[in-house]
Amino acid sequence: KNEVEQSPQNLTAQEGEFITINCSYSVGISALHWLQQHPGGGIVSLFMLSSGKKKHGRLIATINIQEKHSSLHITASHPRDSAVYICAVIGNQFYFGTGTSLTVIP
Amino acid sequence: DSGVTQTPKHLITATGQRVTLRCSPRSGDLSVYWYQQSLDQGLQFLIQYYNGEERAKGNILERFSAQQFPDLHSELNLSSLELGDSALYFCASSVLPGARSSSSYNEQFFGPGTRLTVL
């Protein structure tokens, strides 16, 4: 049983497109992380949120605690956004989605 | 650069051996987390320490152990290694304990990882 489900698993977009990655979870949480993992393997935390919405540059993250759902949006996508995006939830311990592999084509 | 350092970067060893992975958290961070990322299982939480004490435990095998020292660096010890232990091992740190709190001081910063290959 997966506590965190992400969709889609793979996503290919044209440069400039608006992208949405979804995350649903089944456990009670105090916060949710969106992480970015580049092909080299390094992991960067993009957002940590527990309610509402956060924006950083072209990235927007939203969370609906009642619906147990979060979305990560990328506006005006760029090839450098190509990476794996991972949703992680913080409850009594830490659970991870399997990731969404994004490829942005010039 | 997250400020979290991990050594070594790469480690190749044989089945049955024992290895130690080291993590130094960001300056001022009291909490250290260990994660394993394998090709078939994705990222999995292993264990967390806060200010020297074990705080939360995830899917950590009995062959694995960890500790956090007074200077706040942490070590993950993996023994009786098996082929299936080959993975990327990440360490992360945060100011506060993390679980059960939504404070921004719980945001985790990840190290570059140690790639372990068991032959």
Question: Can you tag this structure with a few keywords?
Answer:
heterodimer, A: mainly beta, five-stranded antiparallel β-sheet, B: 119 residues, mainly beta, 0% helix, globular
Short description:
The complex is a heterodimer of chains A (106) and B (119). Chain A is mostly beta strands. Chain A has no helices and eleven strands.
Average pLDDT of chain A: 93
Secondary structure: number of strands of chain A: 11
Count of alpha and pi helical runs of chain B? 0
β-strand amount of chain A:
over 45%
Strand fraction of chain B equals: over 45%
The H-and-E topology of chain B, N to C, reads as EEEEEEEEEEE
Overall morphology of chain B: globular
Report low-confidence residues of chain B grouped into runs of 5 or more.
none
| H and E order of chain A | EEEEEEEEEEE
Show the largest interface.
A-B, 24 and 28 residues
- Estimated helix fraction of chain B: under 10%
Rg of chain A, Cα atoms, Å = 13 Å
State the distance separating the first and last CA atoms of chain A.
37 Å
Instruction: Please give the oligomerization state of what you see.
Output: heterodimer
Compute the number of strand runs of chain B: 11
Helix content of chain A: under 10%
